[in-house]
Structures are given as C-alpha cells and as structure tokens.
Amino acid sequence: MKLLLLTLAALLLLFQLTPGSTLRCWNLHGKCRQKCFKKERVYVYCTNNKMCCVKPKYQPKSLPWKV
Asked: How far is CA 28 from CA 14, 46, 61, in A?
C-alpha cells in the first residue's frame, strides 16, 4: 500500500513538472510562448508578458477592403 501511494505521489509530481505546459489564450485557440512557430501569428500578449501564438486556421480573416 505504501508503494502504491509513493508511486502515485511521484507520478503527480512528474505531471506538475512537465515542461511545455503553456497558458492558453485567444479563446483557447492560442498558446502563450516566448517565440511563435513559423506559421503562427501574434495578435495579443498574454498576462505573463509572452506572445499569444495563434495557428493559421484560428487566425482572424482580414477584410477585403482593409489592406
């Protein structure tokens, strides 16, 4: 029983320390990062002063009369 509790505690700690867990932004379609990937764009900044990187399919469409 003690071994089971120790294993569960270790797994929970590992899940908390997993790198890459980023905050979500832009209506949960973007991720807060220091640097965006190639096709991602920045429209707003997150509360932790990182950029909100949004994938192309969730990026707002530009209006044809605004260039």
From this structure: 24, 12, 17
